Amino acid sequence: MMVSVKRSFCGMLLLFLPTVLLSQSGFVVLNYNVLEGLQQKQERKLAFTQWVKKIDPAIVSFQELNGFTHRSLDSFSRSYGHPYSVLLRENGYPVGLSSKYPLEQVERVQIDQYVGYIYAKVNRLYHVFVVHLDPFKAPNRLRQINFILEKANALPSDEPVLIMGDFNNISPVDSLAYADSGRIRRAIAMKQEGFELQNMRDGEYDYSVIDAMIAAGYLDSNELGKKGFTSTCPTKGYKHKPTYWGGPSRIDYIWLNPAARKQAVRFSIRKDKVTHNLSDHYPLLLTLKE
What we know:
Elements: E1 5-6, E2 27-33, H1 35-38, H2 42-55, E3 59-63, H3 70-78, E4 84-87, E5 96-99, E6 103-110, E7 116-122, E8 126-132, H4 138-153, E9 161-166, H5 181-192, E10 200-201, E11 204-205, H6 208-215, E12 219-220, E13 252-256, H7 258-261, E14 264-269, H8 275-278, E15 284-288
Parallel strand pairs: 2-3, 8-9
Antiparallel strand pairs: 1-6, 2-15, 3-5, 4-5, 6-7, 7-8, 9-13, 10-11, 12-13, 14-15
């Protein structure tokens, strides 16, 4: 395991849209896997910027900021009103964070060669972790989330903590949505087609990472207003893209410790004309008290 910690106050990101969105009140958290840095296409960046301006989030938590540098992330984030940002690294599939508010106590932590996380305290209140766990192997994911939980558990228990991102793991809460034998066969078949997968155990789905989050006392923010199963991947525009879970899956999360749960107001998985096509993942929106 390689671990490095760097402190940074870089800046970041851009956006786009043709739908009407109402600005949110409260401290709005946006989490978004933006598919390989919006593929570094200017029209996608512009669309994302316009879309985010309508939502006006306090922070944006990103996965897959491929192709961004610290400087370009700074410029991008300022384009939608976030003067503060941090990028994990300038290669691979890095995570990132942008904010209206100063980012304090920033840490950029590389756990493995390809996986790391960003930690920051935002608005002198919220402890924020941005993660993107291993997509291929459950044992790696479990080790990575336990590493992050160890850091999170060292924080004061009466202060709100958010752990968010692409966990690349499905939840046992949604198990009925995954029970179809056809999709289980498709998930198993992906390994046989050459994917380096360890997402199944004894012919069944592995839920170990989500089990670990629940055991640690964190609440899945999706439970705030849950109305049945809603997938986060793939999106409508990428509906033919195969998933490691044999079909539409919920693998993106914003987790809340008990103190953060007291601050939570509402949660949604945002599906609209923009997000149907901007990425293969849908964004998450969580509103907290200021």
